[in-house]
Amino acid sequence: MKQKKLGAVCLGTAIVCSLTACSGKQKLIETPILERYGLDVKTGEVANEEVVNGYLNPEEVVVQETKRDENGNRTVMEADEELFLYRMDGENAVITGLTAPYLKEVKIPATLDGHPVIGIEGSIFAEALSVEYVELPEGVTYIGERVFEHSAKLEEIKLPSTITSIGAYAFSNCTSLEEIKLPEGLLQIGTRTFSGCESLKNIEIPSGVQKIEEFTFANCTSLESIRLSDNITEIGQQAFQHCASLEEVEIPEKVTAINIGTFYGCTSLETLIVPASVVNIYPTAFKDCNMGQISVVTPKGSYAEKYANDNGMIASTR
Questions:
Q1: Which one-letter DSSP state was computed for residue 99?
Q2: Rounded-to-integer distance, Cα 153 and Cα 160, Å
Q3: What is the pLDDT of residues 150-163, one digit of tens each?
Q4: What is the DSSP letter of 18?
Q5: pTM value?
Q6: Fewest C-beta atoms under 10 Å: which of 61, 134, 196, 263?
Q7: Rounded to a whole number, what is the distance in angstroms from the first to the last CA of the chain?
């Protein structure tokens, strides 16, 4: 059988790098994948026609039938360990690549080669052409930067309770993602993590998160409500810029300022609950908002009451 090169998919290069000197610590799950796929690490050619026309051909997406239980939840079989590239972190595995990026549903295994999976990094799902659902196992503690960036078909992701950190741009421009349940143990959400998630409607920030970074939810145009934890002390610049469907926000008691452009372009904003702790509202915080329709609910005599009166907003004291 004539061999075909991995070519435009670039997976040949990724696999070769994983098995050679490109990264001394990163590895693929040993040689069975070579035997199965007939991959020549020197030439980047594969002898297995089925693989070329299936897993490795971007024009022929792997067909997976979506199955659901009686409650409507997806039931997905755990993915083959051999589909993942990883590096070692002590005795643990950190996933760095996926050799079948055209899958529709991916349930990541809890161990690779017997090593517990603790993290996912690298843009392994970035610009994925077909992935709609991803399930991460218990034990994963972090999602690195840009892991799911531009995964335009991602509709649902199931996060484990062990997640403590989600990196910058991790879900940026996941335009089909309508909801995501953040685990209570989450401590950090990066810059622009959910920016451009234009289908995201509601989200609740866990109590362990203390800061909303800049642009975290920028351009989430369908976001209608967000519940901020009482432990948040700072909301970054333009955190909710162009959240055009956002109607109500309650600022936590520990926040002292509403930052530059925080609600820039939030044209549907009607109710803003502001505590007495807020002693500064920066210029452009409400740029391109309908100021006259915004009711600022705040303690009598507070900085926010004066700001509302001075800027054509409706001051409602409590």
A1: S
A2: 21
A3: 999 999 999 999 99
A4: H
A5: 0.80
A6: 61
A7: 79
